[in-house]
Design a protein that fits this description.
Blueprint lengths: L23 E6 L3 H5 L6 H8 L1 E7 L5 E8 L1 H38 L5
Antiparallel strand pairs: 1-3, 2-3
Length: 116
Amino acid sequence: MGTLPKRKDIPPWVKVPEDLRDPEVFQVQTGLLEAMFGPGGSRIPYIEQVSKAMLELKVLESSNLTEVVVYGNYLYKLRTKWMLQSMAERHRLRQERGMLRLEEAMNALELDPLMK
């Protein structure tokens, strides 16, 4: 079961204590957090309100991962976890595609025999 979160501003749609038990947990690359949640987590309150869940972020020591903990009604927390995992994957793929394009452009500039 684990301990209840220490957060003081529990949203009104989260029922205490039943919705705070057995949270859904997943990990996200820390570099993707700003793309997902906005600068300084500015989109978190909106995401919580729309998804009817409560989010908690925990930076994991000695890794580039952050743990995202989702509290709420069983169906809401599963839906929120799925939505956030999909967002993270989308941002990761976009970032990866951008790096591949950059690599291709750099290779074209350096290796093009017509340029010499």
